[in-house]
Amino acid sequence: MSQKKEVRLAGRSLGTSRHVCAFFTTKDEEYRVLLPFIKEGFERGDRAFHIINEAHRPEHRRRLEQAGVPVEDSERTGQLEIRRWEDAYLRDGHFDQNRMLALIEEVLQGGNEQGGPLTRLVANMEWALEDRPGVRDIVEYEARLNYILPKFDDAVCCTYDLQRFSADVVMDILRTHPMVIIGGILQENSFFVSPDEMLREMQEREALHAV
Fold this sequence. Notes:
Elements: E1 8-9, E2 12-13, E3 19-24, H1 27-44, E4 47-52, H2 57-66, H3 71-77, E5 80-84, H4 97-110, E6 119-124, H5 138-148, E7 155-161, H6 167-174, E8 179-182, E9 185-188, H7 195-210
Parallel strand pairs: 3-7, 3-8, 4-5, 4-6, 6-7
Antiparallel strand pairs: 1-2, 8-9
């Protein structure tokens, strides 16, 4: 088995576990931490796949340009794809976790040919705060991603605004990611549990609520 290509994030080298939840309190903090990771990818020829709120697209493109990323050229060559929530998580106006898991696998598989470039996927997760059907499945979705992502070398970073998500959701999200960024520092997540264990616990919770 070949060794994974090195990827640096938040000042550290990512190991074999590359499913990261990144908690921020401001957009400035988010970009300060993520832009070096994004820019490194462009310099190495990696693909960038970003999922964002469409309303934030102009600001996102501006931040990338300021960091030295040639946004228009990269979009034209396919090295960069900026996809809105409605074309990913919220297709047809709702969240379907099975369809989204299939999309993530499809995106990563696309760059997974022998010797092909890595994909650095950054996803803003505030779509789960929208009043849309299915959004409560976010924790189950994040847990199930851990069945898919170990098959790939790619780095997947899910960003969360600590000011907007409840403490209960944050704690559950934390438990679905083997790596975490808190306070701008990347670390192995001691709260992480296997997807089997997390999904079993969630089923038990649902059974209790149904009583």
